[in-house]
Amino acid sequence: MPELPEVEAVRLELDPYFTHYRIEDVDVRRPDLRDPFPRRFRARLAGQTVERFLRRAKYLLATLASGDTLAMHLGMSGWFHVSAPGGPARVLDKHDHVIFHMSSGALIAFNDPRRFGMMTLLTPKQLAAHPVLSTLGPEPLSDTFDAAALARACRGRKTPLKVALLDQGVVAGLGNIYAAEALHLAGLSPMRAAGTIVTAAGEPRESAYRLAAAIKDVLTRAIARQTAKSYRSARFQVYDRERERCLRPGCGGRIRRRTQGGRSTFYCPRCQK
DNA sequence: ATTGAGACCTGTCGGC
DNA sequence: TGCCGACAGGTCTCAA
User: Fold this and answer.
1) Is A263 marked active-site?
2) Distance of CA A213 to the CA centre of its chain
3) N or C: which end of chain A has fewer CB atoms below 10 A?
């Protein structure tokens, strides 16, 4: 279930087990995930100390003493499970594909039934030139993301607003759920052309301000829920609520679902214009 | 340059 | 109970 808030929750959970610890060894239990593991993956990881453990968009990045960066993506179904030193050992699952043996004694298992996840090792040069990582848009919760940045990225685009929000080059880390939630909170239709939140002169319209604020709001609250461990029961305002009533006070519309870019979009036709 | 469709994989759920 | 299709929170590639 990984969009930005979930990946951030994973980062927070794993950080104490990765940062400043040495990867003693790695079990790689199959030749590939979405892509094959790089050559000498295990050899290049074994013995390396993790200096920093970061998130960028939906990627987790472990910076190693060697200078290489271990880049990981959870795909649709990826997750990590930690067995703390001295605690109960995890019973190996058939979808535990990679197991990090840390110098603390912790075991960190990457589990991913659908195998849409990825894991690779990048030299500093490869990291800087990475076709995806180097073209990501701004982090939505940073100061570099605001109405002006959003307007710049949407200017002149006829693609539907929802589709633009899923473009990681526009803003990094939104996925299908939070894109729908942000549009609902901002009161904007997912079908309107992305360029309509920008004036001809390139200035953000009021809708761009609302949308940028809604994105920050939705993600911030989702992260707070994640870290409070109450997210299992998380319900959304529009996502997965087809035919139910809109929860915006005073609206009372019916949530609809339609397909955009091959994915389900949920929205309220009454209050999202 | 954009955009849509299909591909990658397994699991789950609802209907019959 | 079993079978079948639809669908799933992501991304990539290819054709138009």
Assistant:
1) yes
2) 18
3) C
